[in-house]
Every structure is written in structure tokens, then in C-alpha cells.
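PROTEIN DESIGN WORKSHEET
SECTION A - STRUCTURE
LENGTH: 256
C-ALPHA CELLS:
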């Protein structure tokens, strides 16, 4: 897994402070922005975070590149609807010899890993054979419709990939670019940094949070799962029961 912070709104904390101050000031925006010192920004952001005034956080966004994750992971990721996504297409990108993600619990059991690896190899071979058969069928049809062989072969391959991808597993490796505003990130971290989140998306969320803390440490000071954000766990009897351990983990992550 690799998570990269591609870009973010310049001076994110100053932008948030400016937007918030504007709501209660008759001054022009330029004067408000220029008049904010580092100390004023810090104090203002800390106040906003403490009272949960999150609407002004939407003016700042972060864009991440995420690689080396499974389709199972990104299927969960895109359920966070207030965000923008661009993912490697299995329709247009040939997946011959696809890479795959092995869950740690499978990797830890030799017999399970052997079964898993064998099945991935079988699916890879099946995908390639199926794509070749479909490609040849599409090619002959396109030639019969009047296309030259080279053009027909190119179009046929893309059409074959479109249907052959149905055989690909959730374990198939993918890449995705994600943009979220700060308010959406707070919600994302709340749900996906939790110990009850699936292991892979939790690892992605942890790395995204670490990168956010480097770029805007005051804004993300209290970000994380519910027990970090609010000091309590909302999961009831479903709680992991390790709140103090989780709080310490995120304290170290943010300071690392």
C-alpha cells in the first residue's frame, strides 16, 4: 500500500480561519486574510474545532494518490459520497497477470496462502483465456462490419476487457485518486480509523490522517475514530474495548 498527498489547499488553516472570521466581520476578505498571524490562526482554529463548527472546513481540500490496495478496499472507500474519485479502469486497462492483495490473516497460514495463491493464478489464466476468446470474436465481427484488421483488433481488445473483468476477484490490485474536503475527512477518519473498520481501509485511513496532520496539524489535532474525537466510543456492546490503547496510538501517529 502506498498513500501520497498529491496536493492540498495552500495555507489550509489560514483559509479556514479567514472564512470563519468573515461570518462575523464587516471587513473585506483581503484585510481579514492579511491580518491573521500564526498565533491568531492557531487560536481561532482550536476554537472552531472545540465547538464543532465544521462548515468552514469545507473550503479546504486534500487530494491523495492511493496505490497497492484491493478492489475490496476501494469499494468501501467510494461509499463516502462527498468526495471525488478517479480509479484505474478495468474496462480500459488490460489486467493480464494482475497483481493482487493478500490479507494478513491468509498470509499467516501457509496452507491458506497456498490455496489463495493457486486460485489467483487460476483466475489470472482464466481472465487471459476469456479475454482472448472474446477478442477474437469481436475482431471477426468488426472486420465483417467493414473495419480494417488493425482497427478491428484494437476495438475488439477493449470490448473483450469490458466483459472479461467480471471474472476478476476483489483481491485485484487497483489505484485511485481521492479528493475530500476537511469536513468529509473528519467523517472518513471517524468511521475508518476505528478498530472495527476493515483492516485494509483502516491502514489507508491511518496514512491519510498522518499526512493531513503534517499539512494542517491544528485542524486535525482531534481527528480520528470517535473515541479520539469525542473521548467516548459509540459502538456500545460492539466496542473493541481498547479505547485507551487506540487513543495512545493516534497520539503517537500525529506526533510521528
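SECTION B - SEQUENCE
RESIDUE ASSIGNMENT:
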Amino acid at each position: 500500500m502506498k498513500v501520497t498527498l498529491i496536493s492540498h489547499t495552500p495555507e489550509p488553516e489560514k483559509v479556514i480561519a479567514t472564512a470563519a472570521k468573515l461570518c462575523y466581520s464587516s471587513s473585506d476578505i483581503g484585510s481579514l486574510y492579511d491580518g491573521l498571524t500564526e498565533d491568531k490562526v492557531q487560536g481561532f482554529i482550536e476554537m472552531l474545532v472545540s465547538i464543532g463548527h465544521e462548515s468552514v472546513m469545507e473550503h479546504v481540500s486534500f487530494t491523495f494518490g492511493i496505490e497497492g490496495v484491493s478492489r475490496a478496499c476501494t469499494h468501501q472507500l467510494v461509499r463516502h459520497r462527498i468526495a471525488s474519485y478517479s480509479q484505474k479502469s478495468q474496462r480500459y486497462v488490460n489486467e493480464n497477470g494482475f497483481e493482487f492483495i493478500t490479507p494478513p490473516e491468509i498470509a499467516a497460514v501457509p496452507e491458506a496462502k497456498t490455496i489463495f495463491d493457486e486460485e489467483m493464478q487460476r483466475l489470472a489464466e482464466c481472465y487471459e483465456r476469456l479475454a482472448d476468446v472474446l477478442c477474437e470474436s469481436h475482431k471477426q465481427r468488426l472486420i465483417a462490419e467493414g473495419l480494417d484488421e488493425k482497427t478491428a483488433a484494437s476495438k475488439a481488445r477493449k470490448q473483450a476487457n469490458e466483459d472479461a473483468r467480471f471474472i476478476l476477484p476483489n483481491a485485484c490490485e487497483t489505484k485511485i485518486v481521492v479528493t475530500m474536503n476537511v469536513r468529509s475527512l473528519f467523517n472518513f477518519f471517524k468511521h475508518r480509523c476505528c478498530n472495527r473498520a476493515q483492516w485494509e481501509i483502516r491502514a489507508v485511513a491511518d496514512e491519510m490522517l498522518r499526512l493531513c496532520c503534517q499539512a494542517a496539524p491544528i485542524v486535525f489535532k482531534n481527528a480520528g475514530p470517535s473515541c479520539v474525537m469525542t473521548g467516548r466510543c459509540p459502538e456500545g456492546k460492539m466496542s473493541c474495548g481498547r479505547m485507551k490503547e487506540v487513543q495512545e496510538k493516534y497520539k503517537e501517529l500525529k506526533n510521528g
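SECTION C - NOTES
Residues 104-167 form one domain.
The longest strand covers residues 61-70.
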